[in-house]
Design a protein that fits this description.
347 residues, 2 domains, alpha+beta, single chain, Jelly Rolls, 19% helix
């Protein structure tokens, strides 16, 4: 699905033409909405631009280039400093979530897939400069818009619109926390996660979750996006083995009512459809990977993309890891998931 920002005022390409279109407050309000959408994707709350973009106000140069929080950061600073260069680890955890957040150049050319950066330094290897793509420089046109000096022009809004249109493909990396284990030898006992085992008689599996979005209303994090095929699940073990990853479908109270081999909510007396969490309605397979000790392996493909899409759309963001080969020793396991996505078109 092709991304479109659906600008209301402009030509067929969504651009304001001098002497044809007048810059108005609705244009500023639309830019503010699109910026806030991207702020929320990088786990930053919406900013209230209402003091400058409400009916009866003027479109001010400071709104575009100089305003600082409080009450809000300027449009340009939001794009270059908050959206293009997001703060990682904002949700905490060990390791912190998110581990990495990058916006990718979405145009089908020689730079497609490179990481978008902004600022005065030349882009590094694998990077592409947003402002260089925009106007061939390392700064916005008329970097400082001063009252009574540099007037707000159609060009300034066109640069903001073009930048927003390009900032629609992202790649976030999230750790998978594995707090719980389920152990066939002690089927009614809660166990510690981050380990798997299978000696042919006893089976230890790990259950965990990723923080894809927050419980806020509206939620911060991934929402209203389409998962791309570049997404992958990375798994590392300290011994050679084969690991199957599954999406766990059950709602699990990790701290207050952790799962066992027989039940996903023991205190609430809610049993897996099949002990071990492989039954219908318990989990679905994402894929398997054969691993060498201390060397990450990856799982990708349609099953993972579908699982991630379901999680983003409100499904449980839970995973199950199990060893499908056999061996005498317990295996320590860690995992993270990289979600590549496109924003869905604005409605």
């Amino acid at each position: 699905m092709t991304y479109s920002a659906a600008w209301q005022n402009g030509n067929e390409q969504g651009r304001l033409e001098p002497a044809v279109h007048v810059v108005n407050l609705a244009d500023a309000a639309q830019v503010a909405d699109r910026i806030n959408r991207r702020r929320m994707l990088v786990y930053q709350p919406r900013q209230d631009f209402g003091a400058h973009v409400h009916a009866g106000a003027y479109v001010r140069g400071s709104t575009l280039s100089a305003a600082v929080s409080p009450p809000f950061d300027s449009f340009r600073a939001n794009i270059t400093d908050t959206v293009i260069a997001p703060q990682v680890g904002v949700l905490g955890g060990d390791p912190a979530t998110p581990s990495a957040m990058d916006w990718l150049w979405p145009v089908n050319d020689a730079d497609e897939g490179k990481i978008l950066v902004a600022g005065e330094l030349p882009p590094g290897e694998g990077q592409v400069g947003l402002l260089a793509k925009l106007n061939g420089t390392n700064h916005w046109t008329d970097p400082s818009l001063t009252p009574g000096g540099t007037h707000v022009r159609a060009l300034h809004f066109n640069e903001l619109r073009q930048s927003i249109e390009w900032i629609h493909r992202g790649r976030w990396r999230m750790p998978i926390y594995l707090p719980a284990g389920i152990f066939s030898a002690l089927p009614d006992t809660r166990w510690i996660g981050q380990a798997v085992a299978n000696n042919g008689a006893a089976d230890l599996r790990s259950l965990g979750f990723a923080i894809i979005s927050t419980p806020d209303s509206p939620a911060l994090g991934l929402a209203n996006v389409s998962v791309r095929s570049g997404s992958f699940l990375a798994i590392t073990t300290d011994r050679e083995c084969t690991i199957e990853a599954r999406r766990c479908l059950r709602q699990i109270a990790w701290q207050s009512d952790g799962p066992t081999w027989n039940k996903y909510a023991p205190d609430a007396n809610k049993a897996w459809a099949s002990p071990g969490a492989l039954g219908d309605g318990d989990s679905t397979s994402i894929g398997s990977v054969a691993l060498q000790a201390d060397q990450p392996g990856q799982i990708s493909g349609g099953a993972l993309a579908s699982a991630l899409q379901a999680m983003i759309e409100g499904g449980e963001p839970n995973f199950l890891l199990r060893r499908t080969d056999t061996g005498p020793l317990t295996v320590n396991v860690t995992a993270d998931v990289t979600i590549e996505f496109d924003l869905n078109p604005d409605q």
